């Protein structure tokens, strides 16, 4: 098996990976369609922020519940149930689109329901990944390939969405997503994942907070991810505004812009998948934050579509370096019995900051324009990266013994 894809030698991870790819392409098709419909129906950048807030606030409020469920329930069955709910929502949106019944209220309701599903799914999925591999040396590669699955779909999905919107129509986007969930459900049910020791599972969410309080490297990773996510969120939230009003395009333009960001993300995922050690990932996280900030400022007042594309490639790559490298380090650091709850906190740091950012950025964009939002967000990310880089030498010394044991193949329990 090629070094880049070595974790695919494991049957369960292979099933997980390909089921995810198909389902996530459908999810991105639906996400682009919803963003386009929101701006078409409301004509408001502020409403784009409201819809983003509605879909993402559950990750801030309910991720702890998702983490508790992930540590107490069969993660495979829990994921399958969540996929069924999301498939039903996609089918309902297809019906709403077919009957031309979309309104701001319908879009908000759909965003909230999907957000609740995501809040329960993300920590469970992050905790479940390592159950699909039986050779611990594949852990880093499996997490990186999971990022490639997500961002490969992010690359393909918007392009597919743009084509489907332009050639067939909005309803087809929701049908595509509903059907795509069948792949994820089938592969989950076909797996035989590694058993998790149940004798220490359970407990309260306070255990995870106490772990973070006592172990500074994990705490700083979450703080940095939260800051980067908060500042980087406007890049995707306001992409329909740039596509329609600044670059004077349509759904295909939006698809290309989001696809450029996805391309950068895939390239970053491939880079991480080729790594065989966690050594040096901390430095990449700090540099990634700086690059996100520079890209955001460069994108802000740029009126040229062809200049925007490479800037988005850099932004997408840097974002995935920060998020996925942090994920890899956390998965190596965290004890198994706390994995679901700590990954819930990772989800809150990654996705939970997005709704707050979207709402504030939407209000600021309404008053001062989206360009200023991008400038402020860019400088905020640069500050976050600088702060992390200053702490890095001390954090390395604290984390080194735990990472050394993890890379030997010891699964903490």
Write up what this structure looks like.
There is one protein chain. This protein has a single domain, classed as Up-down Bundle (Growth Hormone, Chain: A). The chain is globular and about 55 Å long. By secondary structure, the protein is mostly helical. 81% of the residues lie in helices and 0% in strands. The chain has 16 helices and no strands. The protein has helices at residues 11-42, 45-72, 75-98, 104-128, 139-167, 170-190, 206-214, 216-232, 234-237, 239-246, 251-273, 281-300, 305-333, 339-350, 353-368, 370-407. The two termini are 30 Å apart.
Helix content: over 70%
Oligomeric description of these chains: single chain
Distance between the termini: 30 Å
The CATH architecture can be named as Up-down Bundle
Unreliable parts: none
Largest sheet descriptor = none
Give Rg in angstroms: 20 Å
List the total number of helices. Answer: 16
How many strand segments?
A: 0
Structural class: mainly alpha
**Going by CATH, what is the homologous superfamily?**
MFS general substrate transporter like domains
Kindly estimate the percentage of residues that lie in beta strands according to DSSP.
Answer: under 5%
CATH class: Mainly Alpha
CATH topology: Growth Hormone, Chain: A
Shape: globular
């Amino acid at each position: 098996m090629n070094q880049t894809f070595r974790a695919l030698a494991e049957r369960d991870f292979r099933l997980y990976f390909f089921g995810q790819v198909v389902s996530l392409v459908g999810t991105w098709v639906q996400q682009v369609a919803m963003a386009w419909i929101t701006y078409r129906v409301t004509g408001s950048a502020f409403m784009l922020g409201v819809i983003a807030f509605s879909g993402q606030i559950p990750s801030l409020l309910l991720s702890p519940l998702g983490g508790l469920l992930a540590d107490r329930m069969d993660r495979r069955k829990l994921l399958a149930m969540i996929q069924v709910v999301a498939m039903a929502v996609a089918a309902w949106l297809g019906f709403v689109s077919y009957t031309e019944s979309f309104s701001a209220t319908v879009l908000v309701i759909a965003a909230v329901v999907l957000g609740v599903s995501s809040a329960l799914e993300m920590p469970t999925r992050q905790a479940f990944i390592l159950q699909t591999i039986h050779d611990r040396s594949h852990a880093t590669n499996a997490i990186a390939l999971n990022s490639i699955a997500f961002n490969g779909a992010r690359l393909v999905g918007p392009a597919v969405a743009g084509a489907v919107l332009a050639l067939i129509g909005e309803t087809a986007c929701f049908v595509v997503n509903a059907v795509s969930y069948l792949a994820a459900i089938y592969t989950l049910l076909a797996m035989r994942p590694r058993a998790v020791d149940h004798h220490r599972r359970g407990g309260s969410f306070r255990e995870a907070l106490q772990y973070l309080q006592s172990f500074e490297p994990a705490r700083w990773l979450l703080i940095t991810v939260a800051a980067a996510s908060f500042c980087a969120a406007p890049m995707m939230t306001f992409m329909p505004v740039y596509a329609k009003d600044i670059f004077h395009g349509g759904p295909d333009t939006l698809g290309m812009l989001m696809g450029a960001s996805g391309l950068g993300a895939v390239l970053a995922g491939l880079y991480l998948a080729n790594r065989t050690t966690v050594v040096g990932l901390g430095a990449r996280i700090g540099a990634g934050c700086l690059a996100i900030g520079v890209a955001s400022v460069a994108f802000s007042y740029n009126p040229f579509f062809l200049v925007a594309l490479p800037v988005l490639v850099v932004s997408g790559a840097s974002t995935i370096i920060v998020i996925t490298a942090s994920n890899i380090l956390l998965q190596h650091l965290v004890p198994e019995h706390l994995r679901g709850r700590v990954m819930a906190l990772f989800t809150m740091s990654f996705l939970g900051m997005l709704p707050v950012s979207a709402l504030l950025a939407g209000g600021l964009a309404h008053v001062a324009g989206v360009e200023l939002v991008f400038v402020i967000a860019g400088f905020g990310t640069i500050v976050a990266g600088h702060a992390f880089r200053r702490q890095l030498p001390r954090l390395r010394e604290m984390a080194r013994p735990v990472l050394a044991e993890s890379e030997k193949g010891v699964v903490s329990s």
